[in-house]
Specification:
The strands form four sheets. The chain has a six-stranded antiparallel β-sheet with strand order 3-2-1-4-5-6. 44% of the residues are buried. The protein has nine helices and 19 strands. It is globular and about 70 Å long. Strand 2 and strand 3 form a beta hairpin. The mean pLDDT is 94. Helices cover 23% and strands 37% of the residues. The chain has 447 residues and is an alpha+beta fold. Helix 1 crosses helix 2 and helix 3 packs parallel to helix 4. The protein has two domains: 218 residues, PmbA/TldD superfamily (PmbA/TldD fold); 221 residues, no CATH class.
C-alpha cells in the first residue's frame, strides 16, 4: 500500500527547494511536502449517495533572511529556482521577527523511533459501502428510530516529508480508517438525532459497524421528548464524548502561543495547583497507534512524553521553537506545521482516569445532569469564562429520568478545573482522550 505514495520523490522535491532557496540568498530554510490519498463513501437508505476519492500534493517552502521570514506553497514545482527566488524576495520586505528561525541544530533528530503509523490494508469503495450499509441497517433496526441520517465509511493514507537547510531530512506515512452513522428518532417536530463513530489507525482496531449503528440509534431514541429544566445549580457529569471539549479548553490554555501573547487564563499558573490532587494529564507523541502519533514534530525535533499536570499541578506549556525563544524556555517538540510556519500544540493528550465508574458517580451524586452534547463555542480564553449550550439527561437517585435540552451550562474554567473528578471509563481511542468527568455545583440556565 505504501507504494501509492513515493516518499523518495517527495524528499527529492523538498530537497530541490531547499537547495534553490540557499542559492537564492536565504540564510536558512525548510520545505515540507504533504501528500495524501483518501476514499469516502456515504450511504443513505441502503444506497450509495456519494463516493469521494481525493489525491493531493502540497509543498511549502519557508525561508529566513536574517530575522525576516516568508513562505510560499505550490501543488506543482515546475521551476524550484523561481519559487525560491519569490520566497526570498518576499522575506526581504517583511517585518523582522526576533524569535523566527529553524529549530536549534542540537535538537534535531537523527534517528527515528519505530512507531505503528501505517496499516498495510487498503480499502476499496465496495468494501467501504458495505461497512456503511451495515452500520446504517443496525441503527434503523433500533426500536423508535424513524429514519437514517446517513452513514459513511472512509480510508486515508498520508505522507509527510520535512527537509531543512541545517541537515534534517525525515518522512513518515500514516493511515486512518473511519466509520459513522447518524440516526433519527421520532416524527415531525418531535424528532431527535444522534450519532456514533469510530476512527482508528489500524483497521483491525475498528469497532464493528453494527455496534456503531446500534449505539447511534439508541442514543437518538433516548433523547426523545426532552424537557427544559428550570434554572438551578446542580452536579454535572460530562459523558466522555462531551468531556473531550473540557480537555481541549485546557490544551488551548497551555499553548505556548497563548502564553506568549498573554491571552490565557492560566498564563501565571505554571507550577501551581490547577486541578485537584491526584489529577494527571499526559501528552504522549508515541502512543501506540494513536491519532496524533508521530516520529518528529513540524521542526524536525524529537519529543518526550510530558506529564502536563501531575497531582493537579501544572508542569509544562506546549512549545515550538519560536514560542520557546519568546518565553526564554527550551522547546519540547510540540511544533505543528501549517500555513506559513509552525505553531505549538498537543499530540495524544489524555486526561487519566479515576477509579469510580460513571454509574457509581451518579448514584453517589443522587441527582444531577448527565451531559451528552454541547453546542456553541462560548469560552473566553483570556478570562476562562465558560458558557455552553447543552443537552443530556436529568437523573434522580442515580437513575436517568428525563431527557433535557435547550439549557446552558455556565462557570469559569479556573474553578471548573479545580473541581473536576474523572471517572474510570477512559475512551483512549482519540488524540484528545478523557473519561467521563464530574463537576459539582455548576450553574444551569433553563426556564
Amino acid at each position: 500500500m505504501a507504494d501509492i505514495i513515493d516518499q523518495s520523490e517527495l524528499e527529492r522535491r523538498a530537497g530541490q527547494l531547499v537547495d534553490a532557496a540557499r542559492k537564492a540568498g536565504a540564510d536558512a530554510c525548510d520545505a515540507v511536502a504533504v501528500t495524501g490519498v483518501s476514499l469516502a463513501v456515504d450511504v443513505r437508505d441502503g444506497k450509495v449517495e456519494e463516493t469521494d476519492r481525493a489525491e493531493g500534493d502540497d509543498v511549502t517552502l519557508r525561508v529566513f533572511v536574517g530575522n525576516r521570514t516568508a513562505s510560499v506553497s505550490a501543488n506543482r514545482i515546475d521551476d524550484p529556482a523561481a519559487l525560491a527566488e519569490r520566497a526570498v524576495a518576499m522575506a526581504r520586505v517583511t517585518p523582522e521577527d526576533p524569535f523566527a528561525g529553524l529549530a536549534d541544530q542540537d535538537l534535531l533528530l537523527n534517528r527515528f523511533p519505530e512507531l505503528e503509523l501505517l496499516d498495510p490494508s487498503e480499502m476499496d469503495a465496495a468494501r467501504l459501502a458495505d461497512r456503511a450499509r451495515e452500520a446504517e441497517a443496525a441503527g434503523l433496526s433500533v426500536s423508535g428510530v424513524s429514519k437514517s441520517g446517513g452513514a459513511s465509511a472512509s480510508w486515508r493514507l498520508a505522507g509527510v516529508v520535512l527537509v531543512t537547510s541545517h541537515g534534517f531530512s525525515g518522512s513518515y506515512l500514516s493511515s486512518r480508517h473511519g466509520i459513522s452513522m447518524t440516526a433519527v428518532a421520532g416524527e415531525g417536530t418531535g424528532m431527535e438525532r444522534d450519532y456514533d463513530f469510530d476512527s482508528q489507525t489500524f483497521f483491525e482496531d475498528m469497532e464493528d459497524p453494527a455496534l456503531i449503528g446500534r449505539r447511534a440509534g439508541e442514543r437518538a431514541v433516548r433523547r426523545l421528548n426532552p424537557k427544559k429544566i428550570s434554572t438551578r445549580t446542580a452536579n454535572v457529569l460530562y459523558e466522555s464524548r462531551a468531556a473531550r471539549s473540557l480537555l481541549s479548553h485546557f490544551a488551548g490554555a497551555v499553548n505556548g502561543a497563548s502564553i506568549a501573547r498573554k491571552t490565557s487564563f492560566l498564563k501565571d499558573r505554571m507550577g501551581q495547583q490547577v486541578f485537584g490532587a491526584g489529577i494527571r494529564i499526559v501528552d504522549d507523541p508515541f502512543k501506540p497507534r494513536g491519532g496524533a502519533t508521530r516520529p518528529f514534530d513540524g521542526e524536525g525535533t524529537g519529543a518526550e512524553v510530558l506529564n502536563m499536570v501531575e497531582d493537579g499541578i501544572l508542569k509544562h506549556w506546549f512549545l515550538d521553537g519560536a514560542t520557546a525563544r519568546e518565553l526564554g524556555l527550551r522547546p519540547n517538540g510540540r511544533a505543528h506545521r501549517g500555513g506559513a510556519g509552525t505553531s505549538p500544540g498537543s499530540t495524544n493528550l489524555t486526561f487519566m482516569p479515576g477509579e469510580t465508574s460513571p454509574e457509581d458517580m451518579m448514584r453517589d451524586m443522587g441527582s444531577g445532569l448527565l451531559v451528552s452534547d454541547l453546542i456553541g463555542h462560548g469560552v473566553n480564553g483570556v478570562t476562562g469564562d465558560y458558557s455552553r449550550g447543552a443537552a443530556g439527561f436529568w437523573f434522580e437517585n442515580g437513575e436517568i429520568v428525563q431527557a433535557v435540552s435547550e439549557i446552558t451550562i455556565a462557570g469559569n474554567l479556573t474553578d471548573m478545573f479545580a473541581r473536576m473528578v474523572p471517572a474510570s471509563d477512559l475512551d483512549a481511542r482519540y488524540s484528545t482522550a478523557t473519561p467521563s468527568i464530574m463537576i459539582e455545583g455548576l450553574a444551569i440556565a433553563g426556564d
